Amino acid sequence: MSKYTTGIHHISAIVGDPQETVDFYATVLGLRLVKKTVNFDDPDTYHLYFGDESGTPGTIITFFPWINGSTGRIGDGQVGVTSYVVPEGALPYWKKRLEKHGLIVSLTERFNEKNLAFEDPHGLRLEIVARARGKNSTWTPEELSPETAIKGFGGATLFSRKPKETAHLLEMDMGLTKFGEENDFIRFRASGDMGNVIDLKATATRNGLTGVGTVHHIAWRTENAAEQSEWQDILRNKGYGVTPVKDRNYFTSIYFRERGQILFEIATDGPGFSRDESEDTLGEQLMLPPQHEKHREKLERTLIPINVHY
Ligand code: ZN
Q1: For residue 96, how far is its CA from the centre of ligand 1 (angstroms)?
Q2: pLDDT, tens digit, 9 for 90 and up, residues 103-141
């Protein structure tokens, strides 16, 4: 028995200075800071969520800023590249926009699609691809329009320590369809409109090291708690060490390390980011779950203030 995910729910990465992260993802990429909270497992660290206007699953990238953290190394056992999707025809605009902000942008091609490849301020590898599929964004700050703004994730490139086993998991247990092979990449597709194109590097090279500038985990969509519980049973039966359900306030999560050592999460679509603040003011205040609310005063004193400029 297997289950189907429609694609990526969110991707979480470790970065350095939080203000640099906000300046890059909100100002340069034009995403919305939809939640400013703390890492529930380490509340002295921010957890910042960026996405479309409402933080739709498939658009959300989240960050743990480790201010004095050591630099990691992108490699096997990690998500190697995070891919964003923009409307068809918008790539030339993005090349100019990124270069105007001083980024080095290279144009690459995979599976007959052009990609803009670049890095964020802390070394995370990003790409932008143009596709018709997926609805245009209504969050359009600073010169952006629905015809140019990032819609959400195009997908991700996985670097696995055991690519054959990761491929088997994606195709046989998670319901993705193999689309093709090209050079050193195998492409899979999930059924969703965004965050649905997954490239797997077909050979392992060098293990990654967790740290600043690396992806911590990738979360896949599931509809609700009942489905999540089925995922938990099925994955456990296949021998994966799956965690109990964790309440992340805006969704619930289970985690397991797949056999290529990439940390996978299965996250519910709901309840979403309007759970504790109105959609109009998402991301403006520091939001804390009940277990950390009692330490608000201390946290507000110790967390470095951040300012968002759209
Ligand atoms: Zn997560």
Answers
A1: 32
A2: 999 999 999 999 999 999 999 999 999 999 999 999 999
